[in-house]
Amino acid sequence: MALVPFLRKKEATTPSSEHLEAFLKGYSIEVMPRTAEKIDDFRDFLPAGTRVYIAHIEGTPIEDMVATAARLRDEGFDPMPHFPARIIKDAATLEDWVNRYQSDAGVNQGLILAGGVAEPHGDFHCSMQLLETGIFDRAGFKRLHVAGHPEGNRDIDPSGGDQNVMDALRWKQKFNDTTDAQIALATQFCFDAKPVIEWCNALTDAGITLPVHIGIAGPAKLQTLIKFAMACGVGPSLKVLQKRALDVTKLVLPYEPTDILNELAAHKAANPDFNIEQVHFFPLGGIKTNANWAIENGGDAATPANKA
Predict the structure, then answer these.
(1) In this predicted model, what pLDDT tens digit does every residue of 124-135 receive, in sequence order?
(2) CA angle, corner 27, sides to 286 and 130, nearest 5?
(3) Which of 119, 232, 256, 303 has the least CB density, counted as fewest CB within 10 Å?
């Protein structure tokens, strides 16, 4: 009797503009309250309905966060504020934030993460503790994104392995499967497609079926990207930037995420079940610059109709 061969994932096809256009459809982007203040009208360059994450940096007043969310909602966008566990004092504070977002800005979703603070300000130190409170569920928050780390996270696994990260992902998978929550992984940004593909496939092999919203650094000066990448703990794919820095012909040119996105888009086209669902941009070179790049590369464009 002939053995049935194992099904193997197809190799990526040659990148095409159609693949990239499909891959960019429905992309999300990130903003901070202080950068949002410099934008006259997000409708000038973002497609209507775009999910806009609002980064909550330590020291940012909740009033500024809620006001930014309300403004984005008024302009026709889908605000998703961060809830960093380590800067939330206690359950009463979390519930207050959730209620403010809901009542003042119509928010019903959030990115739940540990946050970049070394020492917790109060009772929470990880995203799972926030989810366990039940506060999001009682408030009707159903879409709850959590962090993903394609190149590992030394904060969670100091030894450099992935045991703690994978244990946390299995917990979040179970939470997704046993509640009404819609969990997705919003990842750290990377610069190389290969480790991203390997990580995504490893998740599938481990039974983690949560959709991936892959973090991508938008166009920016090379020095800016290297600074942010080192501060954020970007792993081996940082070598892509370091190699570029050695090429004097490219040193003065702004980095654009064309190569990594083309490779991921081609892989997705060849493997429709590949678990990357959307692209999430970190606009490190400016949100307008990032949005214009997306439009030029097949992303939906803002139109006057967005202001209707």
Answers:
(1) 999 999 999 999
(2) 90
(3) 119
